[in-house]
Amino acid sequence: MGLRIKKGDTAIVLTGKNKGKSGRVLSVLPSKEKLIIEGINIVKRHMKPSKKYTHGGIIEKEAPLHISNIMLICPKCNKHTRIGNTVLDNGKKLRTCRKCKEVID
Fold it and tell me: Most buried residue among 26, 42, 53, 94 by CB atoms closer than 10 A?
């Protein structure tokens, strides 16, 4: 299954404890069909001291959400929407908004 949401897109959460919240996509995990959204699904982790976490302790960070619980927000019409594909004459695919028919990429 090809993931239609990319890093840097703005997305909204449809279900769960963070329903209705939106944020920027930080990373996409295609093999697990999950993605991480900035400021959403915050969990606490106990970390040992390392190069990244010099002091260690309890760290708050974003946990992945399943792709089926997320919907893209169109930058043009500012509504959450499904994503369609348009194929140009040269064979290049473009992502389009299903509501306003504008090109997202």
Answer: 26
Q: pLDDT tens for residues 42-53? A: 999 999 998 988
**CA-to-CA distance for 53 and 29, rounded, in angstroms?**
23
For the chain, what's the residue count? 105
Structure tokens given for 81: 């929407």
CB 72 within 8 A of CB 8: no
- Return all residues near 43 (Cβ < 8 A) that are at least 6 apart: 60, 61, 62, 63
pLDDT for 1: 47
| CA 44 – CA 37 distance, rounded (Å) | 16
Nearest CA among 90, 89, 83 for reference residue 105:
83
Q: What pTM, to 2 d.p., does this model score?
A: 0.81
Identify the structural domains of the chain with CATH numbers, from first to last.
Answer: 1-73 (2.30.30.30), 76-105 (no CATH)
